[in-house]
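Handoff note, outgoing to incoming analyst
You'll be picking up this chain. Sequence as last confirmed:
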Amino acid sequence: MSNSYTAKAAGAAPTSLEVVDAFDDFMSAFESFKETNDERLAQIERRVAPDVVTTEKMERINRALDDTKRRMDEMCAKSLRPRLAGEQGVMTVSAREHKQAFDGYIRKGEAANLHALEAKALSVASDPDGGYLVPEETEREISRRLASLSPIRAISGVRQVSASVYKKPFSTAGAATGWVGETAARPQTGSPTLAELAFPTMELYAMPAATSTLLDDAAVNIDQWIAEEVQAAFAEQEGAAFVTGDGNAKPTGFLNYTQVAETSWSWGNLGYTATGVDGDFAASDPSDNLIDLIYSLRSGYRANAHWVMNRSTQAEIRKIKDADGNYIWQPSIQPGGSAALMGFPIAESEDMPDIATDAAAIAFGDFKRGYLVVDRLGVRVLRDPFTAKPYVLFYTTKRVGGGVQDFNAIKLLKFSAS
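Most recent structure output, in case you need it:
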């Protein structure tokens, strides 16, 4: 495989040619994987245990597929990364003043100008003890990077709010309806019954450190540096919370809701179908388990549905063929795209559980309608030059909430006998 990526990994954005080379490597690895897996399946059909060398080769190629896909995704994200608005010279006067004041605060600790600007704007998020708001373009850049790094955020509904809690009403019983003739009397309809879902926002933080040399270097773009430093920490923490969070000082993950068999589903629970085997797919026609999951979702939700699973589960699914002998997992047809399973894209989340007894290792649904991420406007930074001298710490916070908003829209596959 080509090593063209390594030269660019920590430097400038990769060229389009390097992205194409990485994609070619990935497709070649997938073809090798299929050939090796076909050989393994042929050995099983001949009632011979799979050769150890064949199995090890297939697993090695499987790991290489994952590694190559991850590198290619990173390259695509770097090559498409836009410059911050401040670098493009399209800032308003007030935004430019804020940026300059923020730059002085970060580099030198000069807070007077920044405090005056935020007090003048009557900003509810202005709090010298809790930090100051980053410039708007920096906040947008952090949000954009989170969308590319956080798999659940990328496919979910996202709403920005200025309050600490977002409340969403929903109807538990709609208004009475019916058919009437053209000239028939219209009886008065009953009023709908409404209930409310609440999504509180919780504080998420990161604490990047800088040296005085970096802060004194005028060539360093401070906005860009902060966005790059906090993106991974934010994405890792919120990604886990959106899947398994318990709602205690963090969002409620969709796997933390009560799970019930699809035949017993009711609002407020997530429905699941079982594979029929503890800790595994069905022994014969394992793809039928996935088909059952697809059709447990109402047709109106399937058009925008995604699979959600971790890399280990995806590696097992790569080995499965349908009744016609075709692989049900297919790679993306272009660099940076998502792999597909039975025609639906896959969102890879390492926070999903591995395949095990009673584990809901695969989710399927329209997450745009099913799961809501709530962002409170404003990212704050508090400069701390004292705690870790000679380094300067930047306590960076944002408030995020999340939870299921439509319990019809997400279904689970549980690896259990029933």
